[in-house]
Amino acid sequence: MKTFKMLSMTAVLGDQNISIPLIDGIIINQENSHRSWTLEMYVDNTNSDLFEDHRVSGDLMEVKVVISYPENEPASFEVIVYEVKKIGDYVSVLFKGTLKRARRKYAEQLLTELISHGLSGDALVIQFEEGMRKRPQLEKDSAKV
Description:
InterPro entries: YwpF (IPR025573). Strand 1 (about 1-15) and strand 2 (about 15-20) form a beta hairpin. This protein has two domains: about 1-100, Pnp Oxidase, Chain A, CATH 2.30.110; about 105-140, no CATH class. By secondary structure, the chain is α+β, with helices and mostly antiparallel strands. The protein has four helices and seven strands, in the order ββββαβββααα.
């Protein structure tokens, strides 16, 4: 098994991307024949109803997670909410699922989007560097979800 630090998570729900502010998070690649992953995050209880509803329904959900380094491209997982445990004003949410195979190349998509907005030269470089640091949701992703 391999473990990774979870830096950020976005839940993809229909046409919405909901950024989940993390207090802490970990991802475990179980390295088994099912290609299973376990994700656990510790968050305030703002979105606890969302996760509890998914736990009860057993519905799959897509999450995008940045692992280990802020510069890393978000990895997409299909998960079920396995457990939601309230701890005071906070919640521990345990997910089980698989890594989605089709990962898009964030840098190329960001650059294409900036150029389509008419940026070039120094302005393009500045916006590209900022986008790679902040990782905003891309228009292509917004239209798809």
